[in-house]
Amino acid sequence: MDPVEEVVGEDFGDARLPAQNWQRRHYTKCTFRDADLSELRTESVIFTDCDFTGADLAESHHVGTAFRSCSFTRTTLWHSEFRNCSFLGSEFDHCRLRPMVFDECDFTLASLGGADLRGLDFTDCRFREANLVRTDLSRAVLRSADLLGARTGGVKLDGADLRGALVDANLWTAASLDKTQIELTQAIAYATANGLVVEPT
C-alpha cells in the first residue's frame, strides 16, 4: 500500500485542478479558496481545517473521505457524490448544494443552518448535534437518519420522509412538519411533545 501523503499549510487558492484523482492524502490547514476542483475524485483522503471558500467542486466524487472542521462558503457542490464521507464540525454557508448524492455520510457537529437541502436523500446519514436551524429539508428523505441532539429551530421538514429517524422531542415542536411522513411511534411522540394525551380506544 502506498504511504499517506501529508500536505500541511499549502495555498491552493485560484488553482486549476479539474478532474484530479486523489487517494490516501492528508491535507491540514490548506486553503482552496476559489480553486477549480470540478470533477475531483477522492478516496480515503482527509481534509482538516481546510478552507474551500468559493471553490468549485461540481461533479466531484468522494468515497471514504473526511472533511474535518472545514469551511465551505459560497462553494459549488452540485452534481457531486459523497459516499461514506464525514463532515465532522464543518460549516456550510451559502453553498450551491442541489442536486447531489449523500450515501451514509456523517454530519456530526456540522453547521448547515439556513442551507437549501430540499429533496435530497439523507437515508442513514448522521446529524448528531448538527446545526439545522432554519435549514430547508422540505421533501428530503431522512429515513433512519440520526438527528439526536441537532438544533432544529425553524427547520423545514414539509413533505419530508422521517420514517425510522432518531429525533429529539423538541423537533416535533420546533420544525415545520406539513405532510411529513412519520411512523406510528413517531406520531405518538409528536402528540406527546405537543401536549396531547394518547389513549387506547
β-strand number: 11
Low-confidence stretches: none
Instruction: Calculate the terminal CA-CA distance, rounded to whole Å.
Output: 64 Å
Q: What is the name of the CATH class of the largest domain?
A: Mainly Beta
Can you give a write-up of this model?
The protein contains 2 helices and 11 strands. With 201 residues, it is mainly beta. The longest helix has 10 residues, at 184-193. The radius of gyration is 18 Å and the shape is elongated.
Q: How is this fold's topology laid out?
A:
Elements: E1 5-8, E2 21-23, E3 25-28, E4 41-43, E5 46-48, E6 61-63, E7 66-68, E8 71-73, E9 81-83, E10 91-93, E11 101-103, H1 171-174, H2 184-193
Parallel strand pairs: 1-3, 2-4, 3-5, 4-6, 5-7, 6-9, 8-10, 9-11
Brief descriptors of the model:
single chain; 201 residues; Pectate Lyase C-like; five-stranded parallel beta sheet; 7% helix; 17% strand; elongated; Pentapeptide-BTB/POZ_domain; 5peptide_repeat
In short:
It holds the Pfam family Pentapeptide. With 201 residues, this protein is mainly β.
